[in-house]
Every structure is written in C-alpha cells, then in structure tokens.
C-alpha cells in the first residue's frame, strides 16, 4: 500500500508540473522577458483511420513540448 501511495504521489507531482509548465509558457508569450519559455516543438501525426468493416479505429498523436 505504501508503494501505491508513492507512485500516486509521483503521478500527481508530474501532472501538476505539466500544468504549471503550460501556464508558464502561456505567460511567456505575453511578457517579452519570459519569451523563451513559450518556445515549443510541435510533433505528431494526424488522424489515421483503420476500417475493418466490423470495427473502425482512429489513431492520432500530437505532442507540444515547451521550454516552460
């Protein structure tokens, strides 16, 4: 149970860090001194459809990684 709590805490810290980084990147767009925080790399592919007549799958991946 203790290991589960530790893993849950790591996941929570990671999600909060992602949210704070996104906010810093958004603020960096507006303030010129913090403009480097909004520098980002956009990577991924658009939707790919796989139609098997019984099942239709749609897969897409888009990552936007910023300095913030």
- Mean pLDDT reading: 84
Q: Order of strands in the sheet with the most strands?
A: 1-2
Give the low-pLDDT segments.
none
Helix content: 40-55%
Q: Total strand count, please?
A: 2
Structural class, from secondary structure content? alpha+beta
- Strand content range: 25-35%
CA radius of gyration is 18 Å
Give a verbal description of the structure:
Strand 1 and strand 2 form a beta hairpin. The model has no long low-confidence stretch (mean pLDDT 84). Strands 1-2 form a two-stranded antiparallel sheet. It has 1 helix and 2 strands. By secondary structure, the protein is an alpha+beta fold. The longest helix has 29 residues. 43% of the residues lie in helices and 34% in strands.
List its traits:
68 residues, single chain, two-stranded antiparallel ribbon, 1 helix, alpha+beta, 43% helix, 34% strand
Question: How would you sum up this structure in a few lines?
Answer:
The chain is of the alpha+beta class. The chain has one helix spanning 2-30, and strands at 40-51, 56-66.
């Amino acid at each position: 149970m203790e290991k589960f709590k530790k893993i849950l805490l790591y996941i929570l810290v990671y999600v909060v860090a992602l949210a704070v980084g996104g906010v810093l990147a958004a603020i960096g767009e507006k303030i010129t001194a913090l403009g480097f925080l909004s520098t980002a790399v956009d990577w991924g592919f658009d939707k790919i459809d796989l139609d098997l007549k019984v099942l239709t799958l749609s897969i897409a991946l888009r990552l936007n990684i910023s300095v913030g």
